[in-house]
Amino acid sequence: MDFADEVLDRLARFVVEGGKRVRPTFAWWGWRAAGGADDGPEAASALRAASALELVQAFALFQDDVMDRSEVRRGEPAVHVRFANDHRSKRWLGDPDHYGQSAALLAGDLALVWAEDMFTEALSHMPDARERARGPWRAMHTEMVVGQFLDMRSQARGDTAESTPLRVNRLKTAAYSAERPLHLGAALADANEKVVQALRRYGEAVGSAYQLRDDLLDLYGEPAQTGKAVGADLREGKRTLLLAVGLRRARERGDREAVRMLDSAIGDPGLPDADVRAVADLLAALGAKKAVEQRLAALLREGTRSLADAPITPVAYEELRRRADGAITRAT
Fold first, then answer.
1. What is the number of alpha carbons within 13 Å of residue 187 lying toward its C-beta?
2. How distant, in Å, are the alpha carbons of 95, 234, 324 from that of 212?
3. d(Cα 318, Cα 305) in Å, to the nearest integer?
4. How far apart are CA 11 and CA 163, in angstroms?
5. DSSP per-residue letters across 252-303
6. Domains of the chain, each with CATH number or no CATH
7. Separation between Cα atoms, residue 156 and residue 178, nearest integer Å
8. pLDDT tens string 88-127
9. Cα dist. 324→141, 166, 180, 203, 299 in Å?
10. What single DSSP character describes residue 242?
11. Which top-level enzyme class is recorded in the Swiss-Prot or TrEMBL entry (predicted)?
């Protein structure tokens, strides 16, 4: 099996066998919200274009796992780990880990190229729709990369400002996961500006809430639910809003031991499970967990309200409202 076959097999399995399909789903409901058909040739083309977002997601996750040194993704070894294991088991020359990381980055590049091909070809007979969707498609790519850089830089700088994770969440998660996919779908259906703005406000609020939910699940969820070990983000040094609020509250109380405990735990790759649980308990005692839960719920309410007066189809309104309500249930 040559490299092309290896990448094709890994990429196909990753995209087809896993993931929640969040981004294509939001793109589809952006299309439906703006009056796009639920069946027929144009609906099929819109769905295929939306599905290209899964390849963009593969690109993002392959690179994210390399940068974060994550060993697990979706409950299985991360792609760079799989490539490294291939190298190691076959006794090839050189460093297996470097090979695995390099191969994963190349696989991510290929996924991005294929995403562009899929998006363009899906809309080949809808040139006007394709051009309308180009704006959100391009913006999403830029925002995703900028958000990832800010996330990486905040870890390197040890940034504790609460504004930093909010900005990272806005670009890396909200825009990329919900706002821009909704915008893209609506653009395909030639939505008017009022519909576009309502969907984008909903997407920004709900997408940010989804990230806060994931931050909570990192410390209070179950591996079967998250697909990774509890405390993985904490060990990687991710500067989440949960941690930023906890540090601020500990400092306001003059609790030096709590500050020391949090500072020492963030970014410690060998942090024992018992210490992860202790950090989770401390953040709950400081009121950080409750504060984030309240912000999450407020964002979801805000997102739903943004749709109330928008001229979107009733079926799309009900689906998007249901998705906001479901996020609260899964986070608490």
1. 22
2. 37, 14, 13
3. 12
4. 35
5. HTT-HHHHHHHHHHTT-TT--HHHHHHHHHHHHHTTHHHHHHHHHHHHHHHH
6. 3-331 (1.10.600.10)
7. 27
8. 999 999 999 999 999 999 999 999 999 999 999 999 999 9
9. 24, 19, 17, 10, 9
10. H
11. transferase
Instruction: Compute the distance between CA of residue 227 and CA of residue 51 in angstroms, rounded to an integer.
Output: 22
Give the HSE-up count for residue 48: Cα atoms under 13 Å, Cβ half-sphere.
20
Are 217 and 83 a contacting pair, CB within 8 Å?
no
Per the DSSP assignment, residues forming a β-bridge with 73 are 76
Distances (CA, A) of 15 to 18, 25, 195, 228: 6, 14, 30, 18
For residue range 15-47, list pLDDT tens digits in order.
888 788 999 999 999 999 999 999 999 999 999
The phi, psi pair for 75, rounded to 5°, reads 80, 5
Give me 24's structure tokens.
């294509």
